[in-house]
């Protein structure tokens, strides 16, 4: 090989190495932006908030470029237990103010704020084969009734409803959260379920709703609070309480506190 050829080969190799180094650095570099620098906000929320909080999170991310909102939805009692045991979280949003009672005091890094309320409704399959027309039918023979587990807010609310009605209906199964209860009805595995009215609305044509008289119904308040020192935590709570956040909740069937 000529001297000029060798020099050309070395130059080509150097250029290739430089390009590879630049590529690897770009792949390994953290995302940065004016709004967030690739940060993550972890939100744990009650199952009944699934649909609306996905919208709120999308709004928040749009206003905070580089920030990702990671959310998990389950029963409020489960969320509190997980956080007490050290599960990572920045914000928790629960159904029922009493759900906060077991939360360790040192994890309450901000005052809880009630951001919305919800009421109960009976969910029945779309064709309502059992002919459920109201709460008076909950004690009919052969009715497959499903409710949330007693320690879950929707289960506590269902028990309070039965006390208001003065009934003790047979329960076919107790489900871990309100979405699991609703799913039983959607799949035709239950004739009626006691859920939140927002869950009936979210199910669309999957179920039909049977209203509960206001005099007997149960109002559940929803608190939200920061459980980490992240400045994003308060910013997310501010989004929930903002006009836009409250409109998202109203559109989903929630009622302002």
TrEMBL record:
Can the keyword Metal-binding be found in this entry's annotation?
yes
For this UniProt entry, the molecular function terms from Gene Ontology, in alphabetical order, are:
metal ion binding; molybdate ion binding
Binding locations of molybdate: 48, 76, 178, 196
Instruction: Name the PROSITE patterns on file.
Output: PROKAR_LIPOPROTEIN
Q: Which PANTHER family does its entry note?
A: MOLYBDATE-BINDING PERIPLASMIC PROTEIN (PTHR30632), SULFATE-BINDING PROTEIN (PTHR30632:SF0)
> Which family does the record assign?
Belongs to the bacterial solute-binding protein ModA family.
Q: What name has this protein been given in UniProt?
A: Molybdate ABC transporter substrate-binding protein
Q: Which organism is it from?
A: Ornithinimicrobium avium
Q: Quote the gene name from the UniProt entry.
A: modA
């Amino acid at each position: 090989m000529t001297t000029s050829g060798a020099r050309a080969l070395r130059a080509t190799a150097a250029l290739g190495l430089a390009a590879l180094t630049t590529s690897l650095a770009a792949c390994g570099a953290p995302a940065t932006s004016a709004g967030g620098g690739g940060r993550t906000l972890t939100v744990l929320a009650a199952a009944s908030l699934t649909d609306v909080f996905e919208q709120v999170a999308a709004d928040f991310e749009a206003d905070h470029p580089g920030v990702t909102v990671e959310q998990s939805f389950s029963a409020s009692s489960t969320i509190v237990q997980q956080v007490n045991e050290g599960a990572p979280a920045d914000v928790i949003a629960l159904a029922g103010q009493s759900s906060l009672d077991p939360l360790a005091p040192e994890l309450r890094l901000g005052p809880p704020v009630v951001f919305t309320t919800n009421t109960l409704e009976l969910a029945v399959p779309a064709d309502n084969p059992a002919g459920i027309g109201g709460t008076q039918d909950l004690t009919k023979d052969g009715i497959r009734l499903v409710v949330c587990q007693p320690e879950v807010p929707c289960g506590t609310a269902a028990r309070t409803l039965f006390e208001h009605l003065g009934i003790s209906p047979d329960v076919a199964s107790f489900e871990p959260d309100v979405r699991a209860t609703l799913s039983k009805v959607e799949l035709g595995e239950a004739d009626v379920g006691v859920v939140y009215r927002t869950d009936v609305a979210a199910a669309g044509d999957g179920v039909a709703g049977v209203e509960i008289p206001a005099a007997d119904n149960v109002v559940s308040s929803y608190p939200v609070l920061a459980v980490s020192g992240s400045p994003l935590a308060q910013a997310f709570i501010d989004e929930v309480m903002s006009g836009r956040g409250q409109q998202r909740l109203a559109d989903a069937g929630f009622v302002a506190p």
